[in-house]
């Protein structure tokens, strides 16, 4: 029996390619001096290796030549970019007018939307050249999205320093439309026509499939539903949304297989033509360029009749591309493409042979090892870029893999024939539809798995840490002595973590009644009923994916009432995700139907899903099992066409009575809206959804009237609006409230029994927030001196804090010698305060009020403050000589639970999921 020797790879060009790439990275992220030193060091290593015969002669000479060449070329390009006159002008922030030539297609930048600004693609970014320098252009999408590479245009804008990591000399913020654009090259117009044809043909599918198909084929993600992007990222399928070498391999491989009967050379020539055409169609993406050069080398070898290994082709691609365009050395897509290809070439064949030797069929072995090897090798880079590691990516790619090639080939065919035969292109798209739907379902189901993605440190530190961890595990598995220990540790972790996260997940906590969902810069709050899968949702946040993920983790399938406090983008952006796949009884909106685009979208979505839109008025009440809602505002009819502030002030304000206490839901009411609520109702609540993400437009008298023990602030991380305001946070904390923020604490759950549970952004860290007990208003009917004495004597630290709060209150509310100028929006609050009744917080003593002398002893002052707290926090107004207690005159507060009065007969329009039973809406008799 003749023993077959395994063919070894040719690694002679690998050191040279590595040296060129390292030189580019050093120049792009450090300086041109670092690039020169790195290249010269590589050349020195090659010279020593050649003299001492460490490697083969070809390998050493290639490294000796490529190192100095890369040092000179990359260092020169970086130095030219750093010293160009446009860089000097950018450092000074000058305005200029330039004639530029575009080098890439405009790519949309999706904005989540906030206030009256609609979510979507508002700006585009593209690269261009001008006066021998590379520029990055940031322009408005509606005026620049139709331009093509190769066009020359005049542009006006302001220069700014670039972000680094490339060869751009400046960033140009464009003002206005392109001036005098020149016609693009013919081949670019042809490629754009093909892409437009694919988008038109894909319109016959549903919105999700129609947006995914162009992204899968040519990387056009402009029409993708944001929910799909989020699900694919969590499932580890995000690489399918960008054109990569896999797309090119699929297209060229299909052409080669179809024409194989003509002969290997003829089929290779046809595949080479298809390669050039696909690069033009998809655009010069880094991964496409890498795959194109590598594929061209391999196909050229087939044409010449000389087979070559894939390793020299990959090394040649890196050498050529980085030397031609050093900016590719710092492109994440280029790095991911090269690393994944290396894994498929070097690791996957060995693993496949090992599986075959153990009896695994040939096709199944390759299907298993290809996504596994690619996922493991690229995991450090993905973790460094995204800050998370997908634990289901291997399985998701294994399930999705079989349909990627058919969907891609059919999409390319539809794009090619669409300009000439639109009906046939639509037919081809219909054939590709099931494959695209399968990909969507795989991503959706994989993203819902508990613990599908875990957080990880981003940047170079995170990538290096995960690389070290993976390398350590692989190294330990190679030795018999440590293999058993490593396998036992992995199995132990699996046995411990899986039951905790899948069988008995700790989120949501048992018995939750209120959850503030972490949806970024927006609001989304869920109020539970006594039925496990039924809840009221108040606002939907700006991101469909975030609110959908929150409702799934809570297990919400039926929503008798969906409340949109007002129609700003950060409150209605996730409406479609809430309505999809859930039984919704009605959508409640505020009386002000502004902005107009949001009102149209709400009506359209509600009509599509068969849900009725209602407009509850102040005083109306809703009753559900374990939950009662009362509409407090707005109290007057608004005028149309007002600004964003007016829209905020006319937010629906609700008071919910739950088994965890009273919850005040304030939407985005600002000064005028808060002042209008003072004196109308008993605003006291244990839990407050802080108005307008904690903005500075909050009345101290309003916060004092609510007297919350827990304040929930729904806000996005590092938002550019300055939310929440430190002043408002200080006021809430000075009043004794525990302030929790979704940007720092994640999802927040309020439970009965004085418990608050928060889930961090990584989805794994759950803890109970430190807090004081949520008070029961029935406990404060009379004086409880025993509690006061216990609190005063039991914790001296708490006493000092109480003293500090009293001093702040005294300084803030004492009479001023010189009245401050009147500010807009606080007229009602000032009048209430001057009357001294409960709505004004008792900030001024009424005439004839009984005045108590302020004792000089510190303990007596503390006792008075704590006595005020024990007596239900009735207003005490500090004066220059003492304090004045309000006698109870003025409008009497209406206390107690709201009656179970039906607000609307909305149950007739409530829809259940397929196969579900009908559900009744609050208060229906």
Mind explaining what this structure looks like?
One of its GO terms (biological process) is establishment of competence for transformation. Residues 823-838, 904-925 have a biased composition (Basic and acidic residues). The protein is built from 32 helices and 29 strands. With 925 residues, it is an alpha/beta fold. The chain has 5 domains: 13-83, no CATH class; 85-184, OB fold (Dihydrolipoamide Acetyltransferase, E2P); 190-456, no CATH class; 457-504; 514-762, Ribonuclease Z/Hydroxyacylglutathione hydrolase-like (Metallo-beta-lactamase, Chain A, 4-Layer Sandwich). It has a 9-stranded mixed beta sheet with strand order 16-15-13-11-10-9-24-25-26, with helices on one face. Helix 25 (671-677) links the parallel strand 20 (661-665) and strand 21 (687-689). Helix 2 runs antiparallel to helix 3 (57-83), helix 13 (332-346) packs antiparallel against helix 15 and helix 15 crosses helix 16. The radius of gyration is 33 Å and the shape is globular.
Q: How do the strands and helices of this protein lay out in sequence?
A:
Blueprint: H1 14-29, H2 32-52, H3 57-83, H4 85-91, E1 95-102, E2 107-111, E3 120-130, E4 133-140, H5 141-144, E5 152-160, E6 168-174, H6 186-202, H7 207-218, H8 226-235, H9 245-258, H10 264-282, H11 286-303, H12 310-324, H13 332-346, H14 348-357, H15 362-386, E7 388-390, H16 393-417, H17 422-447, E8 453-455, H18 459-477, H19 480-503, E9 514-516, E10 525-528, E11 535-538, H20 544-554, E12 558-559, E13 562-564, H21 569-572, H22 575-579, E14 583-584, E15 586-589, H23 596-608, E16 612-614, E17 621-624, E18 627-633, H24 644-649, E19 653-658, E20 661-665, H25 671-677, E21 687-689, H26 700-706, E22 710-713, H27 726-734, E23 738-741, H28 742-745, E24 747-751, E25 755-759, E26 766-768, H29 785-794, H30 796-813, H31 827-835, E27 851-853, H32 858-870, E28 876-878, E29 882-885
Helix pairs in contact: 1-2, 1-3, 1-12, 2-3, 6-7, 6-16, 6-17, 7-16, 7-17, 8-17, 8-20, 9-10, 9-11, 9-16, 10-11, 11-12, 11-13, 12-13, 13-15, 14-15, 15-16, 15-18, 16-17, 29-32, 30-32
């Amino acid at each position: 029996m003749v023993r077959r020797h395994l063919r070894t790879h040719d690694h002679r060009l690998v050191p040279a390619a590595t040296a060129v790439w390292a030189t580019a990275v050093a120049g792009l992220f450090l300086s041109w001096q670092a690039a020169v030193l790195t290249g010269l060091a590589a050349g020195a290593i090659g010279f020593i290796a050649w003299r001492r015969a460490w490697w083969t002669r070809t390998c050493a000479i290639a490294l000796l030549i490529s190192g100095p060449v890369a040092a000179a070329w990359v260092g020169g390009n970086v130095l030219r970019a750093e010293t160009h006159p446009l860089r000097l002008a950018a450092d000074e922030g000058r305005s200029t007018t330039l004639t530029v030539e575009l080098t890439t297609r405009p790519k949309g930048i999706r904005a989540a939307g906030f206030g009256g600004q609609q979510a979507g693609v508002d700006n585009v970014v593209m690269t261009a050249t001008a006066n021998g320098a590379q520029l990055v252009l940031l322009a408005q999408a509606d005026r620049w999205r139709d331009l093509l590479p190769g066009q020359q245009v005049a542009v006006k804008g302001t220069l700014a320093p670039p972000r680094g990591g490339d060869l751009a000399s400046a960033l140009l913020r464009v003002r206005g439309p392109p001036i005098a654009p020149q016609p693009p090259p013919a081949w670019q117009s042809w490629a754009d026509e093909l892409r437009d044809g694919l988008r038109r043909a894909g319109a016959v599918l549903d919105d999700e499939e129609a947006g995914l198909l162009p992204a899968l084929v040519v990387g056009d993600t402009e029409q993708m539903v944001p929910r799909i992007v989020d699900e694919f990222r969590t499932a580890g399928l995000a690489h399918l949304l960008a054109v990569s070498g896999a797309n090119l391999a699929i297209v060229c491989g299909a052409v080669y297989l179809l024409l194989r009967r003509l002969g290997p050379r003829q089929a290779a020539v046809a595949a080479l033509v298809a390669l050039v055409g696909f690069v033009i169609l998809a655009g010069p993406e880094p991964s496409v360029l890498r795959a194109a050069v590598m594929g061209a080398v391999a196909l050229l070898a087939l044409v010449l009749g000389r087979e070559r290994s894939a390793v020299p082709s990959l090394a040649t691609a890196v050498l050529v591309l980085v030397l031609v365009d050093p900016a590719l050395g710092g492109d994440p897509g280029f790095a991911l493409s090269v690393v994944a290809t290396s894994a498929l070439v070097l690791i996957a064949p060995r693993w496949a042979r090992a599986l075959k030797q153990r009896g695994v069929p040939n096709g199944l072995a390759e299907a298993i090892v290809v996504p596994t090897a690619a996922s493991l090798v690229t995991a450090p880079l993905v973790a460094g870029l995204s800050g998370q590691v997908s634990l289901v990516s291997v399985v998701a790619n294994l399930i999705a893999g079989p349909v990627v090639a058919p969907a891609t080939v059919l999409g390319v065919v539809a794009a090619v024939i669409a300009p000439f035969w639109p009906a046939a292109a639509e037919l081809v798209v219909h054939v590709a539809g099931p494959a695209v739907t399968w990909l969507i379902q795989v991503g959706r189901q994989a993203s819902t798995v508990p613990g599908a993605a875990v957080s990880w440190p981003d940047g170079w530190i995170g990538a290096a840490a995960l690389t070290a961890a993976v390398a350590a595990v692989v190294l330990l598995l190679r030795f018999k002595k440590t293999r058993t220990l490593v396998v036992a540790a992995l199995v132990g972790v699996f046995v411990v973590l899986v039951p905790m996260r899948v069988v008995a997940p700790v989120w949501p906590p048992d018995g939750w009644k209120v959850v503030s969902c972490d949806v970024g810069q927006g609001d989304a709050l869920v109020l539970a009923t006594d039925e496990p899968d039924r809840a009221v949702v108040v606002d939907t946040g700006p991101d469909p994916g975030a609110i959908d993920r929150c409702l799934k983790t809570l297990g919400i399938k039926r929503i008798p009432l969906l409340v949109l406090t007002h129609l700003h983008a950060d409150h209605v952006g996730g409406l479609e995700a809430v309505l999809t796949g859930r039984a919704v009884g009605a959508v409640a909106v505020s009386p002000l139907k502004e902005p107009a685009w949001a009102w149209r979208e709400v009506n359209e979505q509600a009509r599509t899903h068969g849900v009725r839109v209602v407009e509850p008025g102040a005083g109306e009440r809703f009753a559900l099992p374990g939950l009662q809602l009362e509409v407090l505002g707005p109290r007057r009819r608004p005028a149309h066409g007002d600004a964003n502030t007016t829209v905020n002030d006319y937010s629906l304000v609700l008071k919910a009575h739950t088994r965890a206490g009273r919850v005040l839901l304030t939407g985005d009411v600002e000064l005028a809206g808060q002042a209008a609520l003072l004196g109308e109702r008993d605003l006291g609540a244990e839990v407050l959804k802080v108005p307008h993400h904690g903005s500075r437009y909050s009345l101290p008298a309003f916060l004092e009237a609510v007297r919350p023990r827990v304040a929930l602030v729904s806000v996005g991380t590092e938002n550019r609006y300055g939310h929440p305001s430190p002043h408002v946070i200080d006021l809430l904390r000075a009043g004794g409230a525990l302030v929790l923020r979704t940007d720092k604490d994640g999802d927040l759950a309020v439970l009965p029994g004085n418990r608050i549970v928060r889930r961090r952004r990584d989805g794994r860290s759950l803890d109970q927030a430190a807090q004081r007990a949520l008070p029961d208003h029935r406990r404060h009917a009379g004086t409880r001196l025993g509690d006061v004495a216990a609190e005063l004597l039991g914790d001296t630290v708490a006493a000092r804090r109480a003293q500090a709060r009293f001093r702040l209150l005294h300084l803030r509310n004492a009479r001023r010698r010189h009245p401050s100028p009147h500010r807009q929006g606080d007229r009602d609050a000032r009048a209430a305060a001057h009357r001294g009744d409960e709505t004004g917080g008792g900030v001024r003593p009424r005439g004839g009020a009984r005045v108590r002398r302020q004792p000089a002893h510190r303990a007596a002052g503390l006792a008075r403050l704590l006595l005020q707290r024990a007596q239900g926090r009735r207003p005490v107004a500090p004066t220059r000589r003492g304090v004045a207690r309000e006698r109870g005159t003025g409008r009497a507060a209406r206390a107690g639970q709201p009656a179970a009065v039906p607000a609307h007969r909305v149950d007739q329009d409530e829809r259940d999921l397929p196969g579900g039973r009908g559900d009744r809406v609050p208060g229906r008799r």
